[in-house]
Amino acid sequence: MTPDEYCAQRASRSHSSFTTSFLFLPAERRRAITALYAFCREVDAAVDDCPDAETARGKLDGWRNEIAALDASAPIHALHPVTQALAAAREHFSLPTEQLTEIIDGMEMDLDHARYPDFKALHLYCYRVASVVGLLAAEIFGVTDRRTLKYAHDLGLAFQLTNIIRDVGEDARRGRIYLPQDELARFGVSEADLLECRPSGNFSRLMEFQAARAVEHYGRALAQLPAADRKAQRAGLIMAAIYRETLDEIIRGGFDVLDRRTRLSKPRKLWIAVKTWLAA
Fold this sequence. Notes:
Layout (H helix, E strand, L loop, with lengths): L2 H10 L5 H5 L4 H22 L4 H19 L9 H9 L7 H16 L6 H23 L5 H20 L1 H6 L7 H7 L3 H5 L5 H24 L9 H19 L13 H14 L1
Helix pairs in contact: 1-3, 1-5, 3-4, 3-5, 3-6, 3-7, 4-6, 6-7, 7-8, 8-12, 8-13, 10-12, 12-13, 13-14
């Protein structure tokens, strides 16, 4: 199995909304974004699939060494298939090791922080695990105007805020609550409400507040995308359209997220993708 085949297989197993957009990219860009996505999945799994925190830290340190080897010109054959694919992508696209390492740092935050006191504290986590990915993805898609990076930053944040809303119940059962503690208190929602799947008017109002924040970031991101880069960034716009539709579906469903996960069907995602690609 080649590194590209490994990454494609790793990405397909995730059933993510992101991968739909990859289908519309030229081969070289598709291989690069698939390698980046596979890397994110690997480091995420290093944390989520390890019940022991120290084992998870060891795996993340292993990935730090892999990424450091990209700048050290280590023998490619000695590296993980994902790192090999990233090395090939770096021949054509700007994928700084500092940013790849920052993604690892973000994943490690899940080992140190199961709660966030306020949105300012949560913002750093969102930046590392999502905005940095958005910045790297934007470079792969094509950037001629540096304002596009502001769009990518805010769009990544909007994606992560949507993930937090979608996965409230699932995350709580893993012992993690990403909703800021001061906002839980403001709306009168307890951790027990989340852990025991107790919906209420207070919970709905809390989630409306979270959704409004995400919608604001979608709007801010899209307003910052320069016309010169709009066609190049169509894959990102497809991601945005699918994620925004997922958020809208959650809103229409009354924030029924404590004991289920909202998903769009494959045909629906493909329809959104085609419509968005043609409109961009």
